[in-house]
């Protein structure tokens, strides 16, 4: 009987020690704090979203405003604002290099920024439409000048004047004078121009000479034939 009672008592859970009770208390307190922080964070997000929805609504109704710039805010706040803007049908962008300096800008759809405006904001510059128009005109002018320059370079180069006209006082001005100079030079060196070697006879004279040679040759052949028959 004593053995049975002992076994029952040993199987029963022992009362918690003071150390275990303190650990459990701290765990419960930490869990309560985390739950409260989550609830506070959730409440703050809801309040911030409600505030942004109200500001975005005023922005949309204000016909004098085309865009709205907010102060730098955290990543969660920016995410909420982007979501509110998308639901409201607006265009939104975040600008700023560093995380702590990033901010959000809202634009109405009909006044959505162009690439050069966005580039200015990304560089941390203020957008000036007048200066942007001047830069655009300068770019167009530079592009036209480059195109004109490339066309000039591709065009074949031709002299503005004939070199014979420019140096006529040195080489002569007419073909007759050129021929005279050439003939004089050829005669000096014992050369005969090709033109002087050509047959200057007429066609009729040449044909008569050929016929005479044929008759002479034919007569010689007949005479030779008669001599052999004798």
TrEMBL record:
GO terms for molecular function: nucleic acid binding. SUPFAM superfamilies: R3H domain. Gene3D superfamilies: R3H-like domain. This is Sperm-associated antigen 7 homolog. It comes from the Eukaryota. Residues 1-72, 145-166 are annotated as: Disordered. Residues 46-109 form the R3H domain. SMART domains: R3H. Pfam families: R3H. InterPro entries: R3H_dom (IPR001374), R3H_dom_sf (IPR036867), R3H_sperm-antigen (IPR034068), SPAG7 (IPR017330). Residues 21-57 have a biased composition (Basic and acidic residues).
């Amino acid at each position: 009987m004593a053995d049975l009672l002992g076994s029952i008592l040993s199987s029963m859970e022992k009362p918690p020690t003071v150390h275990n009770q303190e650990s459990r208390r701290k765990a419960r307190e930490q869990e309560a704090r985390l739950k409260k922080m989550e609830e506070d964070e959730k409440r703050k997000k809801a309040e911030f979203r409600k505030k942004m929805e109200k500001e975005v609504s005023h922005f949309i109704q204000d016909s004098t405003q085309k865009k709205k710039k907010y102060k730098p805010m955290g990543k969660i706040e920016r995410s909420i604002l982007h979501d509110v803007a998308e639901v409201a049908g607006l265009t939104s962008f975040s600008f700023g290099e560093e995380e702590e300096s990033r901010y959000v800008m809202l634009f109405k759809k009909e006044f959505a920024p162009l690439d050069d405006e966005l580039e200015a904001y990304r560089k941390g510059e203020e957008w000036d439409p007048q200066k942007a128009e001047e830069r655009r005109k300068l770019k167009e002018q530079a592009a036209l000048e480059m195109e004109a320059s490339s066309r000039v370079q591709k065009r074949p180069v031709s002299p503005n004047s004939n070199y014979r006209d420019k140096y006529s006082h040195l080489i002569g001005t007419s073909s007759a004078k050129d021929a005279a100079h050439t003939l004089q030079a050829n005669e000096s060196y014992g050369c005969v121009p090709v033109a002087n070697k050509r047959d200057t006879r007429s066609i009729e004279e040449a044909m008569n000479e050929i016929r005479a040679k044929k008759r002479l040759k034919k007569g010689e052949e007949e005479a030779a034939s008669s001599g052999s028959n004798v």
